[in-house]
Every structure is written in structure tokens, then in C-alpha cells.
Specification:
Elements (H helix, E strand, L loop, with lengths): L1 H6 L2 H15 L3 H9 L3 H12 L1 H4 L14 H4 L3 H10 L2 E3 L7 E3 L3 H10 L6 H19 L18 H4 L5
Antiparallel strand pairs: 1-2
């Protein structure tokens, strides 16, 4: 029973715990709470979910807008700072102006942003590039359908070898 419970999504765990607690009756919430090591409020929420049929048919695990907000949304001016950081480290193909790349690694982007007072993770550096592409890049470079990012320029997998390789 515990293994099955642990294999479920958050929403389904709530509902399953509520069903098991209701089957037991008096003292069921306390027993199931200890058995599954979950808060009794979780079981109570599961009971409320079961009473509302429209929530049962909803495939979402959490409500829309829930969870941590993206740094792009919480830090004003982050986009301008990011573009300023990579501005001097961006190059392009002499044969196709739509192709751009940066010679900075994700860690270097994170370090340069930290110097500007923005402490972010390496993952955020990649998310920033994705955000720029989705919101600016594909509109500025209308003919491009992708972005080429080369973050490793050394060793046997040198990025220079593949930059202008024709398919």
C-alpha cells in the first residue's frame, strides 16, 4: 500500500489517502497520516477534492499559477542586464547573419550576472537564453528557426570545427 501511494502524483496521493482514511472511519485520518507519513491536512484536502466531482476530472496536479515564479518575472530589468552581459561575447556567421552564438559557458554567464548583482544558477543562464530566443530572437531573426549555442570550445569536441559545417 505504501509503495503504491509513493508512486502516485501529489494530487492522487491526497485522494488515495482520503479514500483509505474514509474506509477506516473514526481515527482513519490519524492512522493513514502516520502510515503514509503525510500531514492530516493533506488527507482533509483529499476528502474535499473527492466531494467536488469537477476537480476529479481535472488532469492538473496544481492550480494554474502555482509554484515558484520565474526569475525573468520577478527581477525587473533582468533581460537588459543579460543582453548587456553577452553583448561583447556574441559572434555570428559571416555567411548567414541569422546565425549567432556566444563563446561563454553557462557558468561564465552566471558569474558575469553575479558581478552585476544578480545571483543566479547555471540553469537560469540557459533559461535566459531560451527566454531571449522565444521573446526577441525569433522576431529579430525571422528567417531563423533555431538558435545555435556552443558552450564548450576546447578539447577534441572543439566548437570551431562544427560552426560552418554544411549538412
Amino acid at each position: 500500500m505504501k509503495l503504491y501511494y509513493e508512486s502516485l502524483s501529489e494530487k492522487d496521493r491526497r485522494r488515495y489517502a482520503a479514500i483509505e482514511a474514509q474506509k477506516i472511519g473514526y481515527g482513519g485520518m490519524q492512522y493513514i497520516s502516520k502510515l503514509f507519513k503525510c500531514n492530516y491536512r493533506t488527507i482533509r484536502q483529499g476528502c474535499a477534492d473527492l466531494k467536488q466531482f469537477d476537480l476529479i476530472s481535472n488532469p492538473r496536479i496544481r492550480n494554474p499559477g502555482g509554484g515558484r515564479k520565474k526569475v525573468i518575472e520577478t527581477l525587473p530589468g533582468i533581460n537588459e542586464i543579460f543582453l548587456k552581459v553577452i553583448e561583447n561575447h556574441t559572434a555570428g556567421s559571416p555567411m548567414d547573419e541569422e546565425i549567432k552564438w556566444t563563446n561563454l559557458t553557462r557558468q561564465e554567464i552566471a558569474n558575469l550576472l553575479a558581478e552585476k548583482g544578480i545571483d543566479i544558477s547555471v540553469t537560469f543562464a540557459c533559461d535566459s537564453i531560451r527566454y531571449w530566443w522565444d521573446n526577441y530572437g525569433k522576431y529579430q531573426y525571422k528567417l531563423a528557426d533555431s538558435i545555435l549555442i556552443l558552450c564548450d570550445g576546447g578539447g577534441s569536441n572543439s566548437s570551431r570545427y562544427y560552426v560552418f559545417k554544411e549538412a
